[in-house]
Amino acid sequence: MLLHQAPMFTCTTPLSRNPNRLTATISMAADRAAVPSPPQRRRTMSALEARISLVAALATQASTVSQRLLLDLATETAKYVFPKQFEARTLEEALMSVPDLETVKFKVLSRRDQYEIREVEPYFIAEVTMPGKSGFDFNGASQSFNVLAEYLFGKNTTKEKMEMTTPVFTRKAQSDGEKMEMTTPVITKRVENEDKWQMSFVMPSKYGANLPLPKDPSVKVKEVPKKLVAVVAFSGFVTDEEIKQRESKLREALKDDRQFQVKQGTSVEVAQYNPPFTLPFQRRNEISLEVESKEE
Fold first, then answer.
1. What is the reported pLDDT for 3?
2. Is the terminal CB of the chain with fewer CB neighbours within 10 Å at N or C?
3. Which residues of the chain form beta strands (DSSP E)?
4. What does the pLDDT read at residue 36?
5. Beta-strand (E) ranges in 43-176?
6. What is the spatial distance between Cα 225 and Cα 229, in angstroms, rounded to a whole number?
7. What is the b/e burial string over 75-95, where b = at least 16 CB atoms within 10 angstroms of the residue's CB?
8. How far apart are the first and last CA of the chain?
9. How many CA atoms lie less than 13 Å away from 27 in the CB half-sphere?
10. β partners of residue 196
11. Whole-structure pTM over 0.70, yes or no?
């Protein structure tokens, strides 16, 4: 039997000996790779999808803002929920509490049975003259408080939002440009012979004399110099009759003080430390009269 083998073909010319053919082959492959693919059409977002995307973005932003606002609210609320207390002289004072806000700096020089003598450091106030004949008329007090609050919270030349302090002072005004003496409350004071009262906020101490100017011309910013005051604290709600009685008792008690006397021409001022929702027995109010050392 004869076996037939398939014919074998041998390449007699190696690739390395045909450089032109190799170069052409590489060039054609490179040309095919360099041909750009046809551009893909970008899908257009529908109106519904655009609305959904916008809502999602706003929701994310609102969530961030809400978290920040909640944190701020919690911080501010804590100042009222966890108040601080002054050193108590009586059971009535022991039940009083004040918000944990900045207040006027003072040092107690001495304590008497009915009052204490304080040395109050200088501070700045914003003040308005109140309408009406009463320092504790609800409408007049509310209007004055709102004007001062607007200045404090941004109605000023730099749109600066300042922190609330305590207390609010209400005081009978003195005649002809006498500087008011007040502490951190809001103060209401009456102008003598004119049935006018003034209310004031103590300004945050970090500003010093560099306070923004009020846009409302009825708001006046001024510095209160260092002073000595006789102070009586009491709880409950403040009325004109209550202030008259307590002022009379304080003036009478100071007549027997061997070291201090009421400064000539001084008017009573009332400090209120608490927000309206505070229970009467927890409210801290103070009346004070400026005093001076007796000459020996």
1. 44
2. N
3. 106-111, 116-120, 123-130, 168-172, 197-202, 220-224, 227-234, 260-262, 269-272, 285-293
4. 55
5. 106-111, 116-120, 123-130, 168-172
6. 12
7. eeeebbeebeebeebeeeeee
8. 155
9. 6
10. 191
11. no
Q: Which two tokens stand for residue 160?
A: 């600066």
CA angle 231, 147, 144 (to 5 degrees): 50
pLDDT in tens, 249-283: 999 999 999 999 999 989 899 999 988 888 889 89
Lookup result for tokens 């003034």 = 198
Q: If you average pLDDT over residues 154-172, what whole number do you get? A: 90
Q: CA–CA separation, 210 vs 275, rounded Å?
A: 28
Find all residues with CB under 8 Å of 227, minimum gap 6, and list them.
119, 120, 181, 290
Residue 258 identity (one-letter amino acid): R
Q: How far from 197 is each of 14, 65, 129, 144, 178, CA to CA, in Å?
A: 115, 41, 6, 10, 14
DSSP 8-state symbol, 40: P
Model confidence at 123, pLDDT cuts 50, 70, 90, reads: very high
Q: What is the pLDDT of residue 1?
A: 42
Task: State the Cα–Cα distance between residues 170 and 240, nearest whole angstrom.
Answer: 11
* Between 99 and 119, the higher pLDDT residue: 119
pLDDT at 247 over 80: yes
